[in-house]
Amino acid sequence: MFSKLKNLSFGPATLVAAAFIGPGTVVTASLAGANFGYALLWALVFSVIATMILQEMAARLGVVTQQGLGEAIRSQLQNPFIKWFSIALVLGAVVIGNSVYQGGNLSGASLGMAGVIGEHAAWLPLVLGMLAAGLLWNGSYRLLERVLIGLVLIMSLAFVATFLIAQPDWSAFFRGMLVPSLPVGSLLTVVALIGTTVVPYNLFLHAASSAQKWQSAEQLPQARGDLLVSIPLGGLISIAIVSTAAAAFFGQAVSLEGAADLSESLRPLAGDGATWLMAIGLFAAGLSSSLTAPLASAYALSGILGYGGDLRSLPFRLTWLAIIGIGVCIASLGLKPVSVIWFAQVANGLLLPIMALFLVWACNHKMMGNYRNSLKQNLLAAVVVLVAIGLGLRSIGAALQWW
């Protein structure tokens, strides 16, 4: 038992947790708790398990082949049509989509910072964008990993402490986690909760960062130990946010439209301390996603176009610089690029099941040698892929309806 415990540590999977706990997740989880109480916590438990299944395969692919997912797509797909279709999807969903979502990440971090300093200034997105750019320009994977580990720990402390201050109903809490239910009108919220955790660009991020962190298949136990710590910790943060909103607002006539509303509305219920903690957590969530979204995009694009994953290479830097720049403009000017977001949603809906299917195929390929998927892993992956297809269809349907 102790030999297994020594492999538990923080690593590339922390980047995945930092990526899926962003301002969008904070808003989605807050609304889930405010509207449906603790009833949808089971969806987060499921999403954490599904994420661990997919991300274990992504990490294993990176460690064993020393390639990112983008590089594996480029090297293994021989059919020109399928290859270029995959490249187009990656460009649409990961690169263009993340450029737009970066605006939301910087806006969320700015709201959190405004809650700490007491005022919201138009220059905050620019400063935070420059901070993210400075950390990425350094080109040190170890530095990025340490910063993101710190941000995940800050989020954990802030959101879990806020959850405890809000005094949850423990019986309803455990019932919501262990007994699946679908209250009237909750289906789209369940899809949103799962969709904010199981996201396609994290497959690129995890595979590439694992290839940089570990150089041989003998280090797979460390990669899996990292996964066992970081992904459940990210799930715990989401569960804490849902539960805080459930404890504070479920069954009350309180209207929440965003994370800032949640932070401010907690003041009369739980005092200034909870408001500060929520603001700090929102800042950490926004900044962590502001780092991981450009990083994942650069890994994906560089890998699939054959530029490699060197953090100091010019194509790599130009990719994340463009994404941060677009995000700063969107956050600073208050732009709402509806058409681009719609396009990104459709592309993401297509990308998740396709990338999940390719990942399963790659992990059964001869390039994996003795580390190919077992029957059990393939069965679990099949369940997750079916869910990914359902999420993808629902995402596309929602986007078309919106359009």
Automatic annotation (TrEMBL):
Molecular function via GO: cadmium ion transmembrane transporter activity; manganese ion transmembrane transporter activity; symporter activity
Q: According to its UniProt record, where is this protein mainly located?
A: membrane
User: What does UniProt give as GO cellular component?
Assistant: plasma membrane
Query: Keyword annotations for this protein?
Result: Membrane, Symport, Transmembrane, Transmembrane helix, Transport
Organism lineage reads as: Bacteria, Pseudomonadati, Pseudomonadota, Gammaproteobacteria, Alteromonadales
What's its membrane topology? Multi-pass membrane protein
- The record lists the membrane-crossing segments as 38-59, 80-101, 121-140, 147-166, 186-206, 227-254, 274-302, 314-335, 341-363, 379-400
Q: Can the keyword Transport be found in this entry's annotation?
A: yes
Q: Give the gene symbol.
A: mntH
Q: Which InterPro entries match?
A: NRAMP_fam
Q: Name one Pfam family in it.
A: Nramp
Please give the PANTHER family that the UniProt record associates with this protein: NATURAL RESISTANCE-ASSOCIATED MACROPHAGE PROTEIN 2, SOLUTE CARRIER PROTEIN FAMILY 11 MEMBER
Q: What is this protein called?
A: Divalent metal cation transporter MntH
Q: Where, per UniProt, does this protein localize?
A: Membrane
Which organism is the protein's source?
Pseudidiomarina piscicola
Is Transmembrane helix one of the keywords UniProt gives this record? yes
Q: What processes in GO biological process is this protein linked to?
A: iron ion transmembrane transport
